Structure formats: structure tokens, C-alpha cells
Task: structure prediction
Amino acid sequence: MHHVELSYALASERGTVGLIRNALMDLLQAVRSSGSISAAAKTLGLSYRHVWGELKRWEQSLGQPLIVWEKGQPARLSEFGDKLLWAERQAQARLSPQIEALRVDLARAFAVAFDDSAHVLTFYASHDEALAVLREHTLGRATGEAVAAGQLHLDIRFTGSVDAIQALNQGRCVMAGFHAVGRPAADSRAAEAYRPLLRPGQHKLIGFARRTQGLIVRPGNPRGIVALADLLRPGMRFVNRAIGSGTRVLMDDLLRQAHIDPAAVHGYGSAEPSHDAVAQAVASGSADVGPGIEAAAQARGLGFVPLVDEFYYLVCLRSALGTPAVEQLLAVLHSAAWQDALASIPGYAPHESGQVLSLKRVLPWWSFPATSPDHSAQVRKPTKKSSRPGG
Result:
């Protein structure tokens, strides 16, 4: 059994031959048309030795003769070689509309790489409905405001919040997305998870949205779930998010504040990869309740019990802040068209969208001296009465 594989080529001009090229078919057609290996080689602009070697290699690979070699006679294709050319012509004729459509789609995709006004921004981000909507919003949509004329393409890979920031620090993306409640305490799980990954002065925080996190329940909330304490009821089946996700971090903090031992919640050790997966588990009846956002619950006709408002942030390295792709993203986030689209998503509202925020104000976990070597003009000189260096 021999398999068919497709490939493509990039060229400055459109070719004049078939929509899909194959080196073997080119060789066979040249031999048939010219009647000799040497003439076929000349037609193709190749050496006799190369053409002869390739034909022998293909015969060995396919296990069938391609050329009838008779002394004193013109080279001609074997029956198998004839059938190969016939099959190729049939496929080209039958599939030409689909092949042309595929070529056009590939050309359109690669056009972005050759368009100086188009930008691609790589994201690793905690799963979020608004980011998925933003990806579609930025594709060639004019906002009517002072937004860059070119297209902005968001290459988003959804992962846990911790993994997203780690990917940013490892250079695997330009922008990361994570979420936390407003000004989380220094001893919170959020601080424990994010503080080692973020550095004031090195990272820049960007406002994106406010959203409501809560409990996704079955339609009509038949178990009457209204608070976290209800998770402790006998027979209550809970489905959780994966360790490292921002929602798992949030649930850890909320249970801690409510003085609830996670081990007492049946199913707390389970792990689903997204809000949609949690909603699906509840919708299928395999769980009674799980954490998530309102949009995921509404998408499947489920109930939703709000627990807390939190903020979704974007973060990049300081060096990326002035790049064209990031500047264009900030312009889109500032636009009224995007903020209207964001407000239309259940459980979401604009909040400092597109604004570069103070990391120490939003996440006040770091303590620094009042002065530093970067502000030498403000460093107080040591005096004789002081045994401690200034700053």
C-alpha cells in the first residue's frame, strides 16, 4: 500500500503547470513526450545521470518498472508508468476545483507574512470566552476609530494561568492572560502562584475585562446550591478545574476564606481543562456543580450561581510594549466597538481595557526600599550618625 502526501511551494510568480506538482509525474511525462532519457533530461533542465537515477530510485520504491528499456528502441513507459500518468490526470481533472480552493486559502494565509501592515500576536492564556471573541473581532474588522489599518491576528493557545505566564517568561509567547480578584491578599493562593512569576519593571500589566466567576449548576438548580457550603452536602458531586488554572487557584482561595477543607468536597481532586469542559460535565449529568463563568453555563442552558467578580489581565514583557502588534492590540481594546462587544458577553464588562496598569498597585505583593540605584538622585547620603548605607 502506497500513500499519497501533499506539499506546496512558495514562489514569486504563479506556475504554469498543474495545480499540484509531482516530480515523478514530471519525469514520466517528459520521457513519454521526448522518447528518450537524454531528451527528457534536457527538457527538464536536469542531467542525464540525475533523471536515470531518479527513475531507478522510484522503480525500487514502488516495486514496479516505470520504463521499458529496449536496446535500439526509444524509451517508453511501462504499463504501470502509463497508469500512473492516467491516474494523475484523472485526479487533477476531478479535484481541480478543490485543489484551487485549497491553493487560494493557502495563498491568503501566507499573504499575512508578506503584508507589512499585518501583525501576528502569540498568546498563551487562561481559558476565557472574551479572548475567543476578541480573536474574531480583530480579523480585518475596522472599528471606525484610530486603530491601525492593518489586520491583527491573535494566535491564542488556552492553558492554565500559571502555565501561560511561564510560557511568557520562557519566550514561547508575547502575551499571557491570567485572572485574579482585585488586590488579592499577600498570603493568598493567587499570590503564592503568581508572585514568583511576575516582576515589577520587567513585566507590564494590561487591563482587559471584569468577569463573574461562580458555580455552574444543572438547569433550574435542582439541588438548591446557593453558596460554597452547599458543596459539603451528602451526595453532592463536584467537578473541578486542573491544578495550575486560575479558576483552581480562585477556588482554593474561596474555600480557604469560607473555612472549608477541600478534601471534604467530593470530586475536588478532579480536573477539567476549561470552563466549557466543566459545563459539559454538569450538562451530561456526571457532576452536579463545578466552577466556571456565566457564558459557559448559558451556552449549554445551565444554571449559574455567582460567587465573585474578578479581573482578567494581559501581561507582556516591558520590551514588547512598544511593538506594532502590542500597540495595535491596545488600540483595539481601547475602542468603543470592542468594549460594546465585550459587554454583550454574559458575565463580562469592560474594565480598564487596554490600559497599562501598575503591577504593584493591582497585585500589591512586593515590598521595595523607598529608594533604589535606578533613582540615584533620590538616594539619601549616609551620615555619621547612621551605620546603615543610604537607600
User: Anything to note?
Assistant: Residues 371 and 378 are 7 Å apart (CA to CA).
